[in-house]
Amino acid sequence: MLKYSVEKLPLDVRLELAQKHKSLRKQKGLSQQDLAERSGVSLGSLKRFETQGQISLESLLKLVFVLGRLSDFERVLEPEKNLKQIEKLFNS
């Protein structure tokens, strides 16, 4: 893995997601304990995520579901649209 890069590294993205999640949780007025209970994710897993950015995908999806942001993940890994194919339709 590249040590220096212009693009973000997986660690950077993990930590940013954790920070955004923590901010959203607080904005919704939920304590870590409240969110853990509502989502079924252990309090330890939630704390580890918010401090280190480490969490399973299943647990992350449960957390964002409770926060009302699960639909954000529907766009992840969506295939890129081929604009040249679309342009051909309009040019013919």
% residues in beta strands: under 5%
What percent of the residues sit in helical stretches (DSSP H or I)?
A: 55-70%
Number of strands: 0
Low-confidence sequence ranges: none
Q: What's the N-to-C terminus distance?
A: 45 Å
Structural class, judged by helices and strands?
Answer: mainly alpha
Q: Give the helices and strands as they follow along the chain.
A: HHHHH
**Rg, alpha carbons:** 18 Å
Total DSSP helices: 5
Provide mean pLDDT, rounded.
90
Structure description:
With 92 residues, this protein is an all-alpha fold. The protein is 60% helix and 0% strand. It contains five helices and no strands. The longest helix is centred in the first third of the chain and has 18 residues, at 10-27.
Key features of this structure:
92 residues, mainly alpha
Helix-strand blueprint:
Elements: H1 10-27, H2 32-39, H3 43-52, H4 57-66, H5 83-91
Helix pairs in contact: 1-3, 2-4
Summed up:
The chain is mostly helical and 92 residues long. It contains five helices and no strands.
